Amino acid sequence: MQYRTLGNTGLLVSAVSLGTMQFGSKMNAGNLDQAATTEMVKFALDRGINLIDTSDNYSLGESETLLGVALKGIREEIVLATKARLPVSDNIIRTGATRANLMREVEGSLRRLQTDYIDLYQIHGWDSVTPLDETLRALDDIVRQGKVRYIGFSNYLSWQASAALERQARLNLNPYVTGQMYYSLVGRGLEHEFMAFAEYYKIGILVWSPLAGGFLSGKYSRNQPAPEGTRFGDAGQFVPFDLEQGYRVIDALRKVAFEHGVSVVRTALAWTLARPMISSVIIGARRLDHLDDNIQAVDLKLSAEDMALLDAASDPGVPYPKWMVLQLDQAEDPRPKLLNPERFADGGPWQDRRGKPFGG
Fold first, then answer.
1. pTM of the full predicted structure?
2. Domain 3-314, what architecture?
3. Marked catalytic residue, from 58, 121, 150, 201
4. Active site annotation includes 220
5. Which of 40, 60, 89, 173 has the most CB atoms in a 10 Å sphere around its CB?
6. Rounded to whole angstroms, how far apart are CA atoms 186 and 99?
7. DSSP string spanning 303-348?
8. Measured distance CA(177)–CA(9) in Å, rounded
9. pLDDT tens digits, 213-240
10. CATH 3.20.20.100 domain extents, the chain
């Protein structure tokens, strides 16, 4: 196993981490019972995983409950992450990033997980109703009370995360250290702005759904529909993407996987692990053999040619204003080339595109 720092902290976490949406039966996302949950947790820890991620709304708390039992006697050996903000019942006050809800939900998570503290407590999404300062002050209080060690966010726009970090700095509050975000070969939207934001603020990215809800498993193609019993086959596109481009990505993945003698899944995960600012890639499985294959992606080293092939097949293009920012800063301003000539040795991260088509 490889280990990386959790964002701008000294805490080391495994390059792949165990997701837990499949624990419990109330979301129909895996339906693993207590015995299967305990077995999977032990399997993951035995192979070097030390970060486990859950949420208070996964199977409406059942995931946390099953995980709490599975961690008895070994809680101190892992980094435990959970999330709050999404509805956990029909009661209207039990949702949102309000002070009232966060204070209640952190206590609920602590009870279900059977622990005195949570290593990483994450806001599951931006709350447009609750004042930002209310959320950030509540999180700071939870940290100062010793119930939480670090805090993070999930599914934020770059400006939202930036606004939060600036408020935390101005108010001398404990800062966000991670952003849990969707990222995959068929969902490279983070590259437009978020990764540059994360690098600037030293935010560690925790990747959710690196296989795009199972599409990148390689189990199906244009001529072979998703089989029953698979996540993609049962639920369809868990995340949106262009299906035809997705098939082109699968074609490229199969080529690279064949050359290395490994699975398509392992290849897709290896690509994600090689991207910048990734603290950990969250993997979830319903079977131990699938989990084992996922974990082995850490040891797969893709060549520059492999990465170029996958990058080309999955290229999302460059939207405005990013292309203009890069045009002005790297193609037209001579200073970056003077200060960092090695970055421009092969033409640079952005060549002058004036009068040329913008393809990536």
1. 0.92
2. Alpha-Beta Barrel (3.20)
3. 58
4. no
5. 40
6. 36
7. -HHHHHHHHHHH-----TTHHHHHIIIIIS-SHHHHH-GGGGTTS-
8. 7
9. 999 998 878 888 776 766 666 666 778 9
10. 3-314
